[in-house]
Write a structure and sequence with these properties.
Rossmann fold, six-stranded parallel β-sheet, seven-stranded parallel β-sheet, alpha/beta, 427 residues
């Protein structure tokens, strides 16, 4: 078989004379290597093709008989708080919304109202097959990486809109996170400046950048106004680390809890949910070493409203809860400054410093190995020094425009864009 294939490569007939087919060992070895490379490349190409076909066709699901006006895609149930206020505003204005989620137990299924339908999109290839064949006018999502990973733009979908799920940098997404969206709904000018800088570097067409504020924060702030501050309580410190090799527990282990207990203050520890699955070898020994007591409690509430309300200061790392805590509850933070490799992120492309690096020092003190034992003094200073109250006011103005108007402004934009697209289709 190999001889036949080699003969084909040399342009000879399979039945040619053996003398004519003589190849010296060096040349034969080289040709054999080339042949294996060709076969390997062919097999790889077939696998890629098969994967693409499974992604596009294998999970197509039911076809949309008519073009859906507004489709929302959520890759996790925890983002329902981002979408819920926008959904309710659209429905209040008589619009129909179709919600596709990757979570079977998404809270969206509990919303039963005319004009709203929730669909579990399936898992893996089935989910992407459904998304990649959407028939929709507008697709709204908080998921980055459209067209970069398995999620592709559907030929039948007219317009893709991204809405962030936190008050922070858009450029802290993995590379090309929002490049292939048509529009991004923003809450701060620094976000717009970063996106425009990336578009210029990458020679991308300009996206619609529309300032709306932060709808989910508006909801939380309104809830706080209605329920008021927490009842009188002893000074309380909330330790809410993220997860990963740069997170507090990975860096400091249980020592951070030990130091907090020495302050004499009440301590609440609320680990990131992912820690209980991805970091069991870290979290379980710490929980065993520091069991609940009158001074220490471990919190795993799904709703973090109560625990944030009754805490006087937050100790965290790079968790998004920092901005929720400071901007909504108007309280200081103590933060770590993890060493992050920005190479995989959009931030790597820009030479200017991150906005977050200018924001954090205005919100509280940085925790380091050198000042760890002085944590009580850091806590007291952050709570009492008015400079941090002024810093919170500044940061809020920079990253939370149109406070209280987020859902209304999001709906205004989406409806106006839908009407614009509908007019073009008619023409």
């Amino acid at each position: 078989m190999v001889r036949t294939l080699l003969a084909g490569l040399l342009g000879l007939k399979a039945g040619s004379s053996p003398v004519l087919l003589y190849i010296d060992p060096g040349t034969g070895s080289m040709l054999f290597t080339v042949l294996l490379g060709i076969i390997g490349a062919a097999v790889y190409s077939l696998r890629i093709f098969a994967m693409k076909m499974r992604t596009r066709l294998g999970g197509r699901g039911k076809a949309d008989a008519e073009k859906l006006p507004f489709v929302i895609f959520s890759d996790n149930k925890r983002y329902w708080n981002v979408f819920e206020p926008v959904v309710k505003e659209l429905i209040k204005r008589g619009k129909s919304v179709h919600y596709i989620t990757a979570s079977k137990d998404d809270p969206a299924f509990g919303l039963e109202t005319d004009g709203f339908t929730a669909e579990f999109g399936g898992e893996d290839n089935k989910l992407f097959g459904r998304l990649n064949n959407l028939n929709a006018s507008i697709v709204l999502s908080t998921t980055p990486g459209l067209e970069v990973y398995q999620w592709k733009r559907s030929p039948q979908a007219s317009f893709y809109v991204h809405i962030p799920h936190a008050a922070s940098e858009i450029i802290l997404y993995r590379m090309f996170g929002t490049d292939y969206y048509d529009a991004v709904l923003l809450s701060g000018q620094y976000q717009a400046d970063d996106i425009r800088a990336l578009e210029e570097l990458r020679k991308l067409p300009a996206k619609d950048l529309h300032m709306i504020g932060i709808p989910y924060m508006d909801v939380m702030a309104e809830r706080l106004r209605k329920e008021g501050p927490a009842p009188d309580h002893p000074r309380t410190v909330l330790l809410a680390p993220s997860w990963g090799k740069s997170a507090i527990f990975s860096v400091y282990g249980g020592r951070i809890i030990d130091v907090l207990l020495k302050t004499g203050y009440h301590v609440i520890v609320r680990p990131h949910p992912q820690s209980f699955t991805a970091e069991k070898d870290i979290i379980e020994p710490i929980m065993a070493q520091y069991p609940p007591s009158e001074q220490l409690e471990w919190n795993r509430d799904v709703d973090n409203f109560d625990v944030l309300r009754r805490s006087d200061i937050l100790v965290s790392d790079f968790s998004g809860v920092i901005f929720d805590f400071t901007l909504i509850y108007d309280k200081p933070v103590i933060y770590t400054d993890p060493e992050i490799d920005y190479a995989p992120y959009d931030a790597w492309w820009l030479s200017r410093p991150l906005w977050t690096h200018s924001a954090l020092p205005r919100l509280g003190k940085q925790l380091t190995e050198d000042n760890m034992e002085d944590l009580k003094s850091l806590i007291d200073e952050c709570i009492s020094d008015p400079v941090y109250a002024e810093g919170r006011r500044q940061v809020k103005a920079e990253t939370w425009v149109f406070e209280g108007q987020g859902a209304e402004r999001a709906a205004d934009y989406l409806i106006a864009k839908y009407e614009e697209l509908s007019g073009k289709e008619v023409q």
